[in-house]
Amino acid sequence: MKGQKKTKRIGVFVCHCGVNIAGVVDVEKVAKTLTDYPGVAFSTNYIYVCSDPGQQMIIDTIKEKKLDGIIVAACSPTLHEKTFQEAARLAGLNPYQIEIANIREQDSWVHVDKDKATKKAVKIIKAHVEKAVRNESLEPIKVEVHRRALVIGGGISGIQAALDIADHGYEVLLVEKNPSIGGKMIQLSETFPTLDCSQCIMTPKMVEASRHPRIKLLTYHEVESVSGFVGNFKVRIKKKPRYVDAVLCNLCAECEKVCPQIVPDEFNMGLSFRKAIYMPFPQAVPGTYTLDAEHCLGLNPVRCGKCKDVCEKKAISYEMQETIFEEEVGAIVVATGYDLYSMQALGEYGGEKIPDVINGLEFERILSASGPTAGIIRRPSDGKVPKSVVFVQCSGSRDTEKHNPYCSKICCMYTAKHAMLYKHRVPDGQAIVFYIDVRTGGKAFDEFYQRTIEEDKVLYIRGKVSKIFKDGDKVVVWGVDTLTGKKVEVEADMVVLAMAMVKAEGVGDLLRKLKIQTDIHGWLAEAHPKLRPVESLNAGFYLAGCAHGPKDIPEAVAQASAAAAKVGDLFAQKELSHEPTVVPVDEDKCSGCAICITMCPYQARTLDTERGVVVVNEILCEGCGACAAACPSGAAQQRNQTDDQIFSMVTAMMKG
Amino acid sequence: MRVKLKAGPEVRKFIERVEELSGENVYACYQCGRCSAGCPVASEMDVLPNQVIRLVQMGLAEDVLHSKTLFLCASCFTCQSRCPKGIDMARVMEAVRHLLDPKGADAFGPGEIPPDLANELPQQVMVALCRKFSK
Amino acid sequence: MKVHYYPGCTLKEKTTALDVSTREAMKCLDIELVEPEGWTCCGAEYPLTEEKIVGLAAPLRVLRQVREENGDFVITTCSFCYAVLKRANKAIKDDPLKHKRVNAYLRDDIKINALTKEKTTGFEDYNGEVRVLHLLEYLRDHVGYQKIRSRLKRPFGGLPVAAYYGCRLLRPAKDMDLGEPDDPRLFEEFLEAVGATPVDYPFKQECCGSYLSVSLPDAATEASYRVLRSARSNGAAAITVTCPLCFYNMDRRQDKIKEAFLDFPGLPVLFFTQILAWALGVEKTVLGLNQHAVPADDLFRDAPAPEVTL
């Protein structure tokens, strides 16, 4: 499609950006050179065009010189495109008639030869002028918003986000794959730095979430698939069969007594057992039993049926099926949490073969009053109260060679807490912590850590443990005190490893279904590491909690509330605007070959078999241009980035 | 008496030379001490393995070159296999040893082995020992 | 079948038990071991600095000779030789500068044939064509445990034996590539294949003291003691090694160990090839047991003693 090269009056504004651009590119010369270029009605340079006076100058010039298109030659459009689009709008110019020519990241910041850099800047701007004279005025596409949110994950972050969104007045679906909400926090004994009982502070929130009129609590559910786009997601959710009616179940526990199947209890980290029909923990929400089909003898009254027989409420039914249903939501908060790195990976620490070498969560369950040892600290192998416990920080973290290169953030604090609680309960016991650094950045954190040393007399030794092995009754730890230069050996009764935090097991599949971006470690990627920490680059998705990266409870709660606020921003808008720089179909040229459909990552294009042409859902289209590149007939031309425009830009650059 | 930390070309030269000879980036070490914790001979050393690399990082050539440690390393590679930053400490040790004044006396040469022991020893020991610790 | 075999100088002089038992064992598996002609000492230590390139010449010369004799690989039993040959081989493949410089040394070698007195010179560059295999690897991958099991003549009756890897076999992991240094399986699988029971103990790859037994004897005495004690306290009736130096430190110096550490009653030290040979039917007299300072004869009986009186 040959674009109409209208006679336009283009304004060129070359920014100095202080010395960022002007230090390498001769901006005055550039502006002067462009004055004579066909299509350019006005050309100037200015020290900081993004500043208030800079923008005002642009607005005034547009009006005075009657410009119908402008080039701002400055930094990357990711920074200020919106700024100048808004300025254009204020001047009465359509925002899609402005072009940002990047002469900083693509020129002055990457070259040292000033002469060549200046010539390059001229070429870049000329190319953009060629595009600008062919640009059309466009209006954003308006999109409705379903003011309903989905929160995936029922840990503290998911619960907090759900409560906040619901308190705003919107309905929330809270989906949790386990039989109860609570996540990892409900497994903890006491939390730093206050030593609050974790269940005591969390259960009120759990109950609130279950009773909130606007929260639909969907436990033992999983997200099957998500389609659509921001404001208009269609979510398919799978309800897993509990085989117990949650409403009828009165928690009499008779079923549990008769069930013959014994299973390691995941809630107690395998340190105790549960039955196949079970309640994960006493304060579970919802308060109901669940029958674990994987360990049940066969959901068959012929093989067993004891639980059903004794259930006075007739709440048990082996016929329950998995069901899948669809819901519409406008925003999705991903709060899928974390897991701990496997001890098997650390062969030098016993590789999970030594029973008395445990990880932090196992120790939490041992500390917990509702745990496998009723809160008395006993070691797993023989139940003896350990008189010497070694805590090893950085197990599997800060290791660029074999394990995880990052710092897991919370281990320094929870190790101090563990050592402190151990000393409170076993005052004549010896607690030693091996560390490389101690990181206590939060409020009242360092004071807490100092108390561990000064009041509870825990010995902190600076040196990373080399090897842990069993010798008879003891667990031997080989370390070093780098501060005195002495190699040390400890014959401990028990060792607690502060294992690295890693992405939640199995979450990869879910994230692929959501098509949400993650970093190389599997943590959710935020839109900007500094300024946009709770949004994903995928519009409509928000991040909360450890799914985004290692963090402690205060940060997780803060982030969850922030995500909820962002959802509130979204829902507060009457309607959403979608960028109009999409790729429509020229039906006269389209032959229905459907190559573009295979190219589209957003499933925005479909084939109209009756008419033999492709149709595009402009709301789903993100304007990536893959279809335009693949279309053999030129029927797919991106708005304001047509083939004609691109060729004209290339020609301008080649001519110099 | 304070150690005057110098920053001039002499100091840089020493550090660069160690890095060149060993092929390791000494600055990658964050002094966790794991090499020393696993070293079978560390208790005999005057300067622990992690302290050796620390002295190199600080450019204190004199301190490290005069340590007994350099002639106690058994090249067992336990340090290398455990380092979370992937530094081969055995190579750094050998590199520093090579920077000793070549005119200095053998730390342990063929002459130090008593003849009746020499008759008994597997050749492997003598060759390895002398290659490591003598000129 | 003939395969190339590099014994190393120590096996020919001081520790012939390892050499003889290897040959006899391999005969039982129909394998004839051929030494590359005119082989020299490997140098015992792989040079750890970037500039000691001349130290690569000796081991690579050995490998080149294997290539000249049309060998694809060479087997070795001594851990030190294995480490030097393997690492030198890898260095020359990974580093173009080392490749260039070592070949500059090797190219002009003159070889004089012992019989004909004919001189050969101007060798082609050696590029790492020959693979270096430890006998344990060779037994697992090329002979196969099934074949070994089918040829076993004498049962070990599940005798508990501690496999001792030492330092050189497993570390550095990237170069040696024989398994995870803190959780290896190779040696244990071998012991199972010959009918012994491998003992799991935490000191299987801790250093025995190495050459420090000459320059710092007390440290080596303690290091070897800790290995032996751990093996024994975990139920081993013997410990088996693949290195003449480990053997020297733990067997020939065991009297010094017992002097320094009175709680240690002793433990016999065997070469893995002695175990293999005997299991395959080789006579006890050929195993070189007279070279042991700690008597090990009682382990090689038709009903091997579970506990040896020392």
How would you characterize the overall build of this protein?
- The complex is a heterotrimer of chains A (656), B (135) and C (310).
- By secondary structure, chain A is an alpha/beta fold.
- Chain A folds into five domains: 10-139, 3-Layer(aba) Sandwich (Rossmann fold), CATH 3.40.50; 148-240 and 323-337 and 504-572, FAD/NAD(P)-binding domain; 254-310, no CATH class; 340-502, FAD/NAD(P)-binding domain (3-Layer(bba) Sandwich), CATH 3.50.50.60; 582-638, Alpha-Beta Plaits (2-Layer Sandwich), CATH 3.30.70.
- In chain A, helix 5 runs antiparallel to helix 17 (643-655).
- Chain B is mostly helical.
- Chain C has 310 residues and is α/β, with parallel strands linked by helices.
- Chain C is 42% helix and 11% strand.
- Chain C has helices at residues 9-13, 16-28, 57-68, 79-94, 96-107, 135-143, 145-151, 173-176, 186-193, 212-215, 217-233, 244-252, 254-260, 272-279, and strands spanning 2-6, 32-34, 73-76, 111-112, 119-120, 131-134, 160-163, 197-199, 238-241, 269-271.
- Chain C starts with a strand and ends in a 31-residue tail after the last helix.
- The relative contact order of chain C is 0.14.
- The model of chain C has no long low-confidence stretch (mean pLDDT 91).
- Chains in contact: A-B, A-C, B-C.
- Chains A and B meet through strand 25 and strand 26 of A and helix 2 of B.
Summarize the structure.
The complex is a heterotrimer of chains A (656), B (135) and C (310). Chain B is mainly α and 135 residues long. Chain B contains eight helices and no strands.
Count of discrete alpha- or pi-helical segments spanning 4 or more residues of chain A: 17
Number of helical stretches of at least 4 residues of chain C: 14
Share of β-strand residues of chain C: 5-15%
Quaternary state, please? heterotrimer
Helix percentage of chain C: 40-55%
Shape of chain A: globular
Let me know the average pLDDT of chain C: 91
Count up the domains of chain A. 5
| Largest binding interface between chains | B-C, 39 and 41 residues
Major beta sheet of chain A, specifics? 5 strands, parallel
CATH fold call of the largest domain in chain A: FAD/NAD(P)-binding domain
**How much of the polypeptide of chain A forms β-strand, as a percent range?**
15-25%
Q: Give me the Rg of chain A, rounded.
A: 31 Å
In total, the number of strands of chain C is 10
* Adjacency order of strands in the biggest sheet of chain A: 10-7-6-18-29
